[in-house]
Each structure stands twice: as structure tokens, then as C-alpha cells.
Amino acid sequence: FALLGYSLWILICALFSSDPYSLVSFSNKSVKRQTQSDFTFATMNVVMGQEVLGKFNNCSFVYDRLKKIAAQILKQEDSLLSNMEVVDKITKSESVISSFPKMDFICLQEVTDRFFALALISMLRKHYSYFIFDIGVNSLKTNLYLANSGLMIASKYPIVKVKFKPFSKKK
After folding, report:
1. Mean of pLDDT over the chain
2. How many C-alpha atoms does 135 have within 13 Å on its Cβ side?
3. What is the 3-state secondary structure (H, E, C) of the chain?
């Protein structure tokens, strides 16, 4: 059955074009945005893919972790983290934090499953209004029609333009 499903997926990807990403927004146009000169960015590797990948990385059940990750993100402190001035002096243990400062944009890595991406979006949508997920070009050349890039972005601000350029093999 797996081979039949994979063959059907290749046929669908080859016959129908699709965008290289999915965009979800929960914007409220009546709300006025304040102008801001400083923005905060964070990146997180969350390993939200097929359950077998999580077990291989010694992670608990994905949906249980998903709830904890969303709760931790939503418990942001109102302070800003400013560590770019001392980036050369930060140790590895200081670069990993579990109590998050105020974040305007979050770049999530290893979100390869659409179901878990949508579940996370559902949990974060009151705090972040704009999401890009399922980023990748399905082709034989880039990913053998298998998985997307695993990248996902959550933003408090409208996303004006998106461009995805997959890595290519060195020639």
C-alpha cells in the first residue's frame, strides 16, 4: 500500500502545480498596528514530523510535545532579549533558553507534518496572526516528492512577500 500511495502522490505532484508554501492569516483589519522600530526573532528546532522521527531522536509523542511547546511560547515575558552585542562571548549553554522573551517572529525548524503544523497554528493563533508552513517544492530533483523543508514561520505582523529557493546539489 505504501508504494501505491507514493506512486499516487508522485502523479498528483507531477500533474498539478502547487505553491511552494502555505500561508494562513488571522488578520483583523480593524485593529490599528503600532509602529515599531525594533523587532525580535527567535528560532526553534521542534522535531514535529512523523512519530518515528521523534522516537529516533528520543522525543516523546509529538502531540504531547506540541501542547507543551505552544504553552511555553505563549508564556512570553514582556522583556526583550538582547544578546547580539556579545555573540562571541555566549557559551553553548547560554544560547539555549526555555523562558522566552517577547518574540515578534518565530522561525520553527523540523515541522514536516502538515497536521502538526496546523495544530500548532491553532494553538498560537491568538498571539500570532500570520503563518507560513509546508514550505518546499515537491519534485523528483529536490526531495523525491517526499517531505517539505520543515520550515515554519509565525509572525505578529503581515508577511508581505515569500520566496523559497531550495538548495541544489553541488555540480
Report:
1. 79
2. 22
3. CHHHHHHHHHHHHHHCCCCCCEEEECCCCCCCCCCCCCCCEEEEEEEECCHHHHHHCCCCCHHHHHHHHHHHHHCCCCCCCCCHHHHHHCCCHHHCCCCCCCCCEEEEEEECCHHHHHHHHHHHCCCCCEEEECCCCCCHHHHCCCCCCCCEEEECCCCCCCCCCCCCCCC
C-alpha grid cell, residue 98: 526555555
Cβ atoms 147, 49 nearer than 8 A: yes
Please check the confidence at residue 68 and state whether its pLDDT lies above 60: yes
Model confidence at 32: pLDDT above 60: no
Q: Which three cell numbers stand for residue 6?
A: 507514493
Single-letter code of the amino acid located at 74: L
